[in-house]
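Weekly modeling sync, notes
Attendees: S.R. (lead), two postdocs, one rotation student

Agenda item 3: backlog of single-chain predictions. S.R. asked that every request posted to the team notebook include the full sequence so nobody has to chase files. The rotation student volunteered to paste the first one in as an example of the format we agreed on. Action items at the bottom.

Example entry:
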Amino acid sequence: MINLLPPKAKSDYQYARRSLALRGWVIALAFVLVGLGGLMTFGLLQIHQAITDNKNQVARAQAILAKEKLTQTESKVKEISSSLRLATQVLSNEILFSKLITQIGAAMPPGAVLSSLNINKSSGALDLNAKARDYVTASQVQVNLSSSKDKIFARADIVNINCTTSKTEDKPDPYPCTITLRALFNDKNQFLFINQEPKS
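Predicted structure, as returned to the notebook:
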């Protein structure tokens, strides 16, 4: 086929075809640029989200560590407090028996003797047993131990008094009466380790 078009028309057709091809490349390049822009935006959003998640994880980890340290500190404080309370209880029940027995002996009225004493674990009081020659003397034991001037006990209550007489014995008991008392120490007394003044 012979192309009989004038040279100018031929040139116009060639430029039109080239323009159409170039337009296609421009459109394709625009799509590529839009795609790259979308990928970059998505990547930046992902990076920002990862940074935010990482910061949140770090904050949670720090909060957990702080809470654990607080719990450990509170636990140690409770252990120390328990140890101090136990030491105080032990010391408060450690009685200086040498001083106590001497003082009780001095407070006994004539005709009465101390036979035994025991610490009552349930109430922290002191149970005393004494023997006396008669009921009046046994009662006087309670009066003397409760006396404020002796400063031994805050109070001494009579649990019981029992007087027995036996006519069959060759040698009568010089102390036929037995008195049992329950005594509570004063808040400040010289018979507990906890109340001892340090020596200078």
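Discussion: group reviewed the output briefly. Residues 7-92 form the longest helix (86 residues).
Action items: rotation student to repeat for the remaining queue; S.R. to check formatting next week.
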